[in-house]
Amino acid sequence: MCSDVTRRDLMRALGALGVMSAFPLSGLAAGKGEAPFSVESLPPLEGELTLYLGRGEGGLYENVINAIRDRNPDLSLQVRRGPTVALANTIVAEAEAGARQADLFWAVDSGSLGLVSDAGLATALPDSLGEGLREGFRYDYWAPVSGRVRTLPFNTDRLSLGDIPEDIMALPDSGLSVGWAPAYGSFQSFVTAMRLLQGEKATREWLRAMKGRARQYAGEFGAVMGVSRGEVDVGLANHYYTLRLKAGQPDAPVSLAMTRDDAGSLLNASGAMALTDRPVAVNFIRYLLTREVQEYLVQEAYEIPMVNGVALPEGLPDQERIQPPSLDLTRLADLRPTLELMRDTGVL
Amino acid sequence: MKNHTFTAFRGVLLAAALVALPFTAAADGEAGDHVKDLKSHLGNYESEVNRFVERVEKLVGRYAEQGPDAAETDDLIELWEQVRIHSAVEVNQAPVYASIWQGIYGVKEAIDQEKDIATVRAEQKALESALWQALGVVKMAAQHQADGGHDDDSTESSASGSATVDEIVAQLDEVTVEHAEGETEEATELVHDTYMNLFEGIEGALIEQDAELVESLEKDFNVTLPKLLENGASVSEVTNRVDAMKDKLARAQELLKKAEESQGDVF
What we know:
Number of helices of chain B: 11
Distance between the termini of chain A: 31 Å
Number of helices of chain A: 12
CATH superfamily of the largest domain in chain A: Periplasmic binding protein-like II
Structural class of chain B: mainly alpha
Strand content of chain A: 15-25%
Oligomer: heterodimer
Order of helices and strands of chain A: HEHEHEHHEEHHEHEEHEEHHEH
Strand content of chain B: under 5%
Radius of gyration of chain A: 20 Å
Shape of chain A: globular
Number of strands of chain A: 11
Helix content of chain A: 25-40%
CATH architecture of the largest domain in chain A: 3-Layer(aba) Sandwich
């Protein structure tokens, strides 16, 4: 590989994007903007296109790609798959070598998109493409496709929604036992967000206080299962684990609570960017933002739709209640201080 | 062969199972030029397998007749590191490559632990079987190469959830190889990467089908297997854990296939 990318590079790249921040308090509640458009309204895709696809929700992204292929017989689509960061590195390295191949990049994390954008390889998206997106999620160089949000799954045999604090900083004093998976990337992003929003001192105190009442699990799904079994009262996990569990085991005694406007309700998104100015690349992204694709990802992957007018996955709180913090996501890529903090407090 | 060589080549030659970064792989030539012309070296490879099998037979014979002090089991590892078929197998078929390493350590550990001769012979048989199977793989690869096969990254291949399980199994085989080669850090990192890049992509659909299975595999990936590696567990212990994970993954694959049949249409 011609260029190795560190988290610090990602952070710098995200900073250069300058648009990946500020999920407003009313982020998901805002319904202003265009209604979702149907695939029927889109022009056919023609010609050759090479897509670099970061690993996502198993075969579901593949199904979306295949459906677009089937609908556009005159499109010759090549797909290269791999870990998102590796593909971002590849895109940059190929450009440095004068051998650009990718026309599109569909990534599972925004940091990798920032890296490519920072290298000056992304094509600015037309304003019209962002009109259907939720407010606070309209960017110049990439389009969010689907999202994931931090939640507090809780045991419904023991607790009701009103028992769960709406302030993540109040959790240590709630008297509740908590299941968590500190080694998880999503958890570390959550702690990073807390560090940025509340400061290092408050985060250190929070971690120390929580450590005494937290039970560690091998992963965040394990934490949700622990909640379901009653081993702990509350978990800290991305939303889809609980929704998936409830889909398979509707009687599982677990439901979702959310904090308001703090790290406990952090939201992140996958996204796509064009790497060529050929219209077919932007039009491909339009397909990802159609009502049909968005609904498919909601129904099959329980992801959060990023266009207006598409319902959230069943089992999530109402969109008015989902209030992610206003936070410069570019700074989330700087994990080192977070890891040091977690090690200092014995959490990691 | 050292780990970095393996890493460099696998991206090119293991097709969709591993992401290809062609210019990365081409920069490293440690596998030897012979792998670029397998067909011309098939005779050498076959001779090496015969020689290896004879050496194993002599080793086991000495153990049977004179006991463990007469059997230098480390010689097996050194010999395997030296033969050229090693790299020819390595760049073409990870599962068989892993089986050879497991076979070598099967014999070595059985002798070092002074197991009965029947047990040692059983390990010897497994190793020989893996070696001959590997030669077959190399012959097929040589034919493919001679027919003008390309070492691309199969950009057209689809990566369904059930197909991803095959990739995970291949990665776990590599973990056993890295561990056998003493590359603990690389083996642990590979477990982590496999979990992050592959298993996390399929666990969603599995949770609905069998939540306990997902939880169990999550623990295997994040706790049990890494701890075995970090604590210097024997090759057989690691292999047994990986085999147990493979059994779980086989069930996961069945469930994913069923789930894929019931998925709705996008448009």
